[in-house]
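Convert to structure. Protein one:
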Amino acid sequence: MHRTRVVSPGPSPRPRYRREAAPVPQNGGVSQDVAERSAPAEGAPARPRRRGPTSIEALALLLVFGLAARPALVALFGEAAAGAWVARFVAVMVQAIPFLTLGVVLSSAIAVFVPAGFFHRILPRRPALAVPVAGVSGAVLPGCECASVPVAGALVKRGVAPAAALTFMLASPAINPIVLVSTFVAFPGRPEMVWARLAASLGAAIAIGWLWVRLGKTEWLRLPAHRHHDGGRWPAFWAGVRHDFFHAGGYLVLGAAIAATLNTLIPEAWLARIADHPVLGVLALALLAVLISMCSEADAFVAASLTQFSPTAMLAFMVVGPFIDVKLAAMHAATFGRSFAVRFAPAAFVAALLAALAAGAVLL
């Protein structure tokens, strides 16, 4: 009698799955796993965001305070001082508003209508070469700093090298045609201020880009999630115009008020001591640019009104402001993460300040 030997089947071979290669970002962009970690998980509850006062609310509070305290302010400073303050404030606003309006319209049009593939076609693949090309592109594609931060985040998300995206983010609001024309108008008969601003801003932006190529790490970046506007391009365009104008307009009002206050209330002897010092004057206006957070399309008019300070100090005010200020630091942290913001802010300030000093020494 033959026994039938049952042979147990061996372990079934593991099914071979085809592993799809992750798309390689162009220009040395961030890896796919970093991009996936930056996106919020599906179904995860959204974290409640802290809401601070907007620029419009701050402007409304400032106007209410001014109207309520006007009798006391006039009694304290006198009719002449109050009239001088109003005249200087209105002069800055009247000169700056047209450039601010044109700037936000163009920046919103670029953000909505310029396709993402345009940047991939014009940028070289090597990050070190893409950095200066991105810097020069900032002169062709205008936009204010409020718009350049989310645009840079979208470029990184689409695979553009972070070094090139950061260079474009810094150069676009600093050297675009609107800013250069406004600088030319604010400093009539002094074209050297325009060339000095162009050279210092472009040089500092390229220096930051090359610094990222050398020392930057992708784990410092928390990439932004891509957002769509459900209403189409034109509603997105007008929404961007309204947001950027009112957001930047509030900071313009604040900057014009501070400039008028400095010129009216602070004694000339006090300002002269700081302004005449070759180092303290430059540092004072550089720090002022960080604090008042002005729009780059309008900061030249405020700088030109600070006549007590040297041309190099005015240049530092115009170069530092579009690189880093209070509102930009908050936008950097919200777009790229705190790890990036705490490293980027001091680097941008130092690079802009050194570039302004160098351009001032050579061109002014």
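Protein two, convert as well:
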Amino acid sequence: METINFSYNWNNKLAGRFFTTLRLNNPKYQVGKTYQIQLKGKDLCIAQCADFKILMLKDINSYIAGLDTGYTVPQCKEIIRKMYPTKNFETQRLVLVLFHVITKKDLQLLNLNKINTAGEGDGVITEEKQ
């Protein structure tokens, strides 16, 4: 499983069931794919990419800046420029990724979907599917 590390919990967003991250565009972000989320190198949770939007630095608005970083648009843009000082943001694309935290309840529901309902439909989870 691929890891995504956060050096800082901007806007305390990692405490929610859904959170965003604004990063350099990269094909590793794929809807439906799960990732190990770390904060300062320590495992925090497992999350699934629910959606993403590709944008340019100039496209960051108050919703994106406020929810993702907890800062104003100019402050958010400055943070990104400092994080990636060698990038040309006239051409560099960004990606705003929406993650859904996978909880124990979610895992239980996923396991229920593995119930063997073929045959007589006895609802028994087979060893192969456990």
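The chain has one domain: 2-129. The helical segments are 62-69, 73-83, 104-112.
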